[in-house]
Amino acid sequence: MTFPRLLKSIVKAPFMAIASAIFGVLIAALLLLASFLIHLIGGFEQGQISQIVHAVAKQLPLVFGVGGFVSAFATDAPIAAVFGSARWATGRELQKLSAKDDGLLTGRDPTTGKLLRYDGPAHLMTMAPTRTGKGVGTIIPNLLTADRSVICIDPKGENTVVTGRAREQFGPVHILDPFGVTCKHSAAFNPLDMLDPDGLDIAEDANTLADALVFDEPGMTGDAHWNEEAKALIADLILKIVIAESPGRRNLSTLREYLTLAPERFLGLLARMQDMDEAGGLIARAANRHLGKSDREAAGVLSAAQRHTHFLDSPRMTAVLGRSDFRFADLKRNNATVFLVLPPDRLSTYSRWLRLLITQSLTDMARDPASPARPVLYLLDEFAALGHLARHGSHGRLWCPALADPPGHPSAARHLWSPSGNLPVECRRPSGLWRQRYRNRRTDRTLDRQDRRAVHHQVLERGQELVVRAHLGA
């Protein structure tokens, strides 16, 4: 207990003792009245029981008074309850949060009306049901005021429309909107443009892109063998595209073309790959590996690879992945904003596109040695659609750079803020990247939370944490 709270308890103790003693007198009077009425109506003579009742009644005011006096000093003790040991912030704690002029907006002090800001290094999470203010209370205020680079997943396109022009005061704005939700010209980004044919990391970079493409939604998990072999085949074909194809064909549309060739032409492609010495012979060895499989297994691997790249048949995807209008690494050097707009009704089919771009952005920033003045902010609305990005969990743990990366690591320059309608399945699992990322957040914002299971999970994860009761005005 702090000294100010001790003084407060000392002043409060006599009043609580008097009030409790008065309550004890009332209880004693009721007890004596009940004893009197029982003897009067029943005609019983007063005996040993009556004497015990009178003795207890005499001591009740003293007992209640002492209890009230002691309770003044015990009110701050943690009490186990449904919501754990969390407590509301004091005025002094709120004052510290509202005294900052820089940082991410997390709320408003309901007493003073001042904005609350977080400028620490860790991640943030906002959880709330639909139509309870995640957009107007979290995303839009920060997009309007954050003087830093931002990558924002915008499922409805509303954030782009409302804040796109305002973001231009901080730097270039790139809107990737393949389905024209915002009615604005769409930028494009080709992940294969970032692969260096002569680089030592080209095989790893190809594997990273393949890992982003091969993804099963919860409840649709395929056989691990077919998925892993499909990743290997896709990575090998990406290597071939980057090294052997002309610049105009170095894109994922060519990958889809390869995977959907007629059987005879596909075998001819693999035969040509066997004669390639580039990439240290990796392409040739990959072709040998696939041709060495039985017909049934090879057909299963090819079928799995086709399934995971089916979204590339869309002309809209072809356009938005056909060129690169910017580099993600540049966001660390100069302020810029990237909006990734994908409507909710297409989120399931085209979530791999989001995975590709988020994966490539993290890879590019990790490789760039520049250190930004302010961390790049990732506003990952509907982030559960990204699934489990295993490679970024095992290579540098890029999802939690501020708390888990090695000291001085150049990737420790990002904030992840995940507004979500509910706690994703990945966060509820005992292990997994999203659970690791969830545990590495520092600030939770929960709006109108009535789902008992979600509340219970949040309580278990928070432990003894400070809870700030605040709001953001529209």
Automatic annotation (TrEMBL):
Belongs to the VirD4/TraG family. CDD domains: TrwB_TraG_TraD_VirD4. This is Conjugal transfer protein, TraG. It is a multi-pass membrane protein. It comes from the Bacteria. SUPFAM superfamilies: P-loop containing nucleoside triphosphate hydrolases. The chain crosses the membrane at residues 21-42, 62-86. It is found in: Cell membrane. Its main location: membrane. It comes from Sinorhizobium sp. M14. One of its GO terms (cellular component) is plasma membrane. Keywords: Cell membrane, Conjugation, Membrane, Plasmid, Transmembrane, Transmembrane helix. The keyword Transmembrane applies. Pfam families: T4SS-DNA_transf (PF02534).
